# Entry
Amino acid sequence: MNAPVSEFRRAALTAQVDRVVNSTPVLDIHTHLYDPLLGDLLLWGIDELLIYHYLVAEGFRHLDLPCENFWILSKQRQAEILWNTLFIEHSPLSEACRGVLTTLHRLGLDVKQRDLPALREWFRQWNAETYVTHCLELANVRAVYMTNSPFDDIERPIWQKGFLRDDRFIAALRVDPLLTDWTRAAQRLLAWGYDVGEGFSPATLSEVRRFLADWTQRLESRYLMISLPPDFSCEPDSDCTRLIQGAVLPHCRDFGQPFALMLGVRRAVNPDLRLAGDGVGHSNLDTIAHLCAAHPQNKFLVTVLARENQHELCVLARKFRNLHPFGCWWFLNIPHLIDELTRIRLELLGVSFTAQHSDARVLDQILYKWDHTRRALARVLVEKYSDLAATGWEPTAAEIERDVRDLLGGSFERFLKT
Ligand code: FIX
Ligand code: ZN
# Structure
């Protein structure tokens, strides 16, 4: 029988793993943050933290107020309402509320005062550019991937005009409207000078590819992405399938880039809540199996929103090396499930996955999202290395550093290069 590691060895291992996990810079492979030169698209500061859609959903559990009466208020007023409801009238025990407190604490602010005006005052000293550096350094994040949509009317003209890029913000090309509503998307492509018709003739598909190529080059984006509902399937004649097979996958092969699929979101379950109104559903991963098997020259980055899909996704990744699972997305980004998912993935895949992405919509959130993930990851790793140590296999410091680098972006970078 394997001898359990001594308490002394376990304490040393814990200290070593904590040090490595905290000091390894993260590559955050999916966020909704923006290069500061994209202007107001980059959100930051206390009011934005308080009106994050995760908190809006929780606030409305208590508020006795029609949603529309909330949305017409200024952001400041919305933030005050959520602060009072979620922090003053009740204890901020949820992960999203705790996240605000961790963020403020990491910034050196005294949360116990419960003083919103004083917090606001502190943030006035910053501008976006200096604050970006402050947050990235404090969170030990080396770069973040943005979510960039040519269909976004605010974002598109800024890219078309061009600007001096900050290389800590890497682009990812997001094309949800193209694949989920072809009729509308086709009209837009036509208006932008791409000669697409209604059916999927070779000429139309080639124009869609020209659109994807133009935007990939303009953004210097590194992968193409979409989020999809649980009932996503590759029915042979659907618009989505024809576009994926006739344009998206050939485009990704041309550019040697992965196609990222985020599966399982049910949009607008409660539309009154706007962004906070999306839900989750169980996806049929046969579609992913089919894509990976039928297109071995393509690479698929996949995250799935339902807890029930996680084990199946890992089993699929064991079958297909062109599939890379990533992140604990949205409702899964809570300590209990980060712990569970990280264990399942390590136990089935070793380190050949990406443990987390922040999905931050507000810059400062990278402080809490990575802080909480690092804690959970370190705890699981200590246990896993202790299990190895019980066999006599002692991981070296360099091996631990290599593994953590892989889990926090290194495996992803290798996957991009394959
Ligand atoms: O589709 C996505 O990229 C989702 O992450 C978002 O739509 C969602 O609103 C979000 O912020 C989740 O964390
Ligand atoms: Zn997202």
